[in-house]
Structures are given as structure tokens and as C-alpha cells.
Amino acid sequence: MLPELLSTTAGLWFAVVASGIYHGVNPGMGWPLAVSAALMERRPYALPGALLALAFGHLVAMTVVLLPFALMTMLVDWQTEIRVGAGLIVVALGVWLLFNRRHPRFLARVPPSRLALWSFLVAVAHGAGLMLVPIYLGLCGVVETDAGHRAATALIARTAALSIGVAAVHTGAMITAGGALAFGVYRWLGLRFLSKSWFDLDVIWALSLVLVGAIGVFSAL
């Protein structure tokens, strides 16, 4: 049922939004840092400002990962191989994260004042952008990509625009979900909720990478 849904344009865009919501509610993507920044600064616009910084870093990370695959779409004859290879990379990253639970040390060295940089680095380090690759390549497969019907430059331009659109929609869903949680904690629940109700999604995150990668391989074949 799920692979069939992800073979349609609507289903793939739904997956883009759903993955954004999933990233947003994951505390590892930074919404608790936005709450902490707002509570420390005690300014009305501190929370939206922190969320905007997180969104910018996440958007850049998604775009940086997706754009190289936009260039690959001109290799129409190798489309299946590219999609299978991308899916296997995502699966491999998920398996690696299952066995390696340690977070990169350099993330702890980024000061709180640089939330955009932190958001970019954590999204790259945790494979958040790679999770979108099978979905994005599925969207490229849905649209016509016959090199005999359009020039390579036009094809690259179209798929590059699509990659930016996927990154933007995904980031919008991510920051909406994370922002709603951050606002609720900041306005009503406070830091005590964060210290007592922190939840670890590392295993679920790794398994979700494996699942998305496997679906990408299956749909490509």
C-alpha cells in the first residue's frame, strides 16, 4: 500500500510534508534550543528569531544535499541505478546510526548564538537531507525526463527548481511542527517539561532512514 502511494505525485508530496513534520517534532532538530534561547533572552521576538535561524539552517542543508541529485537527473538512462544507489546509501546510513549512537562532538562546540549553523550541521550529520533523496528522485521519475524531448540544461533547471521546492515545503512543515511544540513549551510548560519529558528518537530516526531507503529501492525497481 505504502509503495503504491509513493508512486503518485500527491503521495510523494505528502511524504515530503510528513517527513518535515517528523523532523520538526524530533527534539534533535533543535526546537528545545529555540525555547532555551527565548527563555534566556526574555524578548518577545526571541522565539520566532531562533526558529527562523533553525529553519534557515535546515533549508540550506536540504538544498545542499538535493541539488547534486538534480544534476544527476540528466543521466536519464541511469535513472533506475541512481535511485537504487541513493536508496542503498540511505539504508546504509540508517544501519550505521543504529550501531553508532554517539553524536558528533563538533556539534557541541557550536555556540547557541549560531543556531542556523548548528541546524545546518545537525541536519547533515544525521542524514535529514538524505532522507528526502528517495522521495525527491521519485518526484523526478513522475515528471517526464526524456532527454529526447528537452535539452539537458532545461531538464537540470527544472529538477533544480523541484529540489528547492521540496526543500522549502519540507522545511516549512518542519518548522511549523517544531515551532508549535516550542511555543507550547515556552508559553505554558517551561524548562521543567524539557528536563522531565525529553524523548530520544535516535533508534526511531535510524529505522526511519532504513525504511525510507528501502521504499526508495523498491519503488525504483
TrEMBL record:
Membrane-spanning parts: 12-39, 51-76, 82-99, 115-139, 159-186, 198-220
Keywords in alphabetical order: Membrane, Transmembrane, Transmembrane helix
Source taxon at top rank: Bacteria
Protein name: Arginine/ornithine antiporter ArcD
